Input
Amino acid sequence: MKESMALQSQRTYLPAAGRDSLLPLYDLMTKLMGADRARRGLLDQAQIRPGHRILDIGCGTGSLLIQLERFYPGTDVVGLDPDPKALARARRKGARAAVSIQLDQGFGDELPYPEASFDRVLSSFMFHHVPTDEKGKTVRAIRRVLKPGGEFHMLDFEEAEKGAHGILSRLLHSSKRLKDNSESRVLYFMTEAGFAEPKKVGHREMFFGHIAYYRAIA
Output
């Protein structure tokens, strides 16, 4: 166990805001860009019910988790992220909002949970942070922790098949990590992981780029 934790501490990750120095501004920037509204769309899509156990993978500063607790009382909510600074901010936000949230430090391709332990796994603006060689492992790990019939719902920037649009989108789409965020690649990863009926269920054009919504059934 100690060896596993030591190996995780040596791994690198891309912070939510791209760099640690921007983390204090992250919530304000994303709110002004409409991220809260986009996340609410993800929650509506997930059809969450009382009693559901839900994992937010790549939870960052906890914005989606707090929305979950606010709109869906009676659920068991867990957040996972590799960034200790983002998790510390999420804990403070949760305390101010007076909500009970379990926050764990870890990586998406090594989920520290038993098989079939969640009804829903959610991911918002996380997948483009994952290196190409870890994307497939991450989706397979998500499939493993979902209960039979459980659902994976994802929201992220989309690599536009015919080019990117928007001020920030042009910058974000220059990243090599975003190349695997086309609809065809995301659906490939979901199918390869053994999900049933993976599909793109919606999209939006926003100031910070083109975003897409996906759903897959375990």
The two ends are 29 Å apart (CA to CA). DSSP finds eight helices and seven strands in the chain.
